[in-house]
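Not sure how to ask, but would you mind making up any protein sequence you like and the C-alpha cells describing how it folds?
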Amino acid sequence: MSLFRSLQISASGLTAERVRLDVIANNLANVNTTRTAAGGPYRRKIAVLEERPVAFADLLGGQSKPAIGRGGVRVVGIVEDTAPAQRVYNPGHPDADADGYVQMPNVNVVTEMVDMITATRAYEANVTAMNAAKQMALRTLDIGRNA
C-alpha cells in the first residue's frame, strides 16, 4: 500500500466521522423539538457509511492481490431512525393532544453520547494513522539524505 493511499483512506475516515459527529450534534440539538416543518416531532437521524469502492484504474494496475478493503469509507446517506416517538404526559404543553400526551422525538441522549464517543475515538484513530504514515515518510526521507 502506498503512502498516499493510506493517507487517502485515513482522510476518508476523518470525513465520515466528522459527518457522523455533525448528525449526532443535530440530534442532540433537537432532543426537545416537538414540531417540525414536516409535522410531528423531530426524527433521529443516522449517518450510513459504506466501504468506498476502489477506483477502476487501481483494478487495472496489475495487482495480484484483490483490492478489497483498500478504498476507505464514504457516507452513503443520512436516514431517519424508524423507532417510534416517545409519548410523554405533559398537559400544559402547546403540542399536547386531548389526553395530555406530547409526541417527543425518538432521540435518546445516552445513545447519542455513546455514538459521539465512538465517532470521536474513530476520528482520533484516523488522525493517529495519518501521523504514523507521515512519520514513516519523514524517516524514509532522512534515510535518503544520510545515504
About this structure: Strands lie at 45-51, 73-80, 86-89, 101-104. The longest strand covers residues 73-80.
